[in-house]
Hints:
The protein has helices at residues 2-35, 51-66, 85-94, 125-132, 135-141, 186-195, 207-213, 223-228, 254-259, 262-296, 308-324, 327-339, and strands spanning 38-43, 71-76, 99-102, 149-159, 161-164, 179-182, 198-201, 218-221, 237-240, 245-253, 300-303. With 341 residues, it is α/β, with parallel strands linked by helices. 41% of the residues are buried. The chain has twelve helices and eleven strands. Helix 6 (186-195) packs antiparallel against helix 11 (308-324).
Amino acid sequence: MKKVKALSLCIVSLAFLTGLFACSSNANNEEGSNSSSITLSFAYELPTDHPWGKGAEEFKKIVEEETNGEITIEIHGAGSLASSGREIQESVKVGTIDIGISSTPMSQMNPYVDIFSLPYIFNDRESAWEIIDSEIGDQVGDKLEENNIKHLAYWEDGFRQVTNSKHQIKSPKDFKGLRIRVPESDLRIETFKALGASPLPMSWSEVFTALQQGTIDGQENPLSVVDSSSFYDVQEFLTVTNHVYSPATLFINLDKWNSLTKEQQEIIEKASYVGRDLNRELNEEQDKALIKELEEKGMDVHVIEDVSEFRELTKNVWDIVIDELDEDARDIVDQIIEQQE
């Protein structure tokens, strides 16, 4: 009887130790899973010295430092991973790229983004920031989740200007006959048709060569892009029209986002805001300096002081965009106007 009791005691003890070891092993595995490194790819199409690139580097620094190396950000700028905003956002949607920036092409996935790019809808940069960083911006950005994409923050492309190789633009009639490259956006196409130009949608990677060869006469982009892309080498005339304020959406694959811990998500959100602020600050600083710098690089610069004629000609574009969406869009536009009165 004593032998049986001793044997039973041994079996119970062995079972207890086995269970204890298993629990310890599971705990270690779970701990290893949480601390295992994650690599996230981050892609954008513009040159690496553009404010997007500077913002991306700041984003990377914060994420890697504050996650103690749990997350590594691999930056792929200058279209090295995907040559256009459209390709980047499609790749993020399916998960072959984790994080991306896109500006005008984002409307192909989220048509409501076009509201922010209606011609002359914002009075100035500060008004634009205040509105897109508010609940209005969240209301628009959250619609991306229908495409398996999580909106993080609105970075900045900036106020867009026009360059061309033919003549200076001083009034809308000077647009007549000009072949202007625009992004792949129905809104931008309609805007330049309203101004009297011949808009030609074209992938970003083709633009410099097309300007150089004379396939197109001009293009429209923020001053930072004109400078960083060396358009002064192939374009003589720069017209400061401020016809569109163009935000840029920073976003992440939704499945990837949901796989992160809450703490990791909070760090990425913080980094997206810090990168956004640096991007905007650099854009604003550059805009103040670049007009003079581009003149020194040989461009003939003209600033449109009174945009009322341009605004009036493009006002019908607002109705086109709103009619293609719904009453929510009209309500958003009304809120934007009210906040600037």
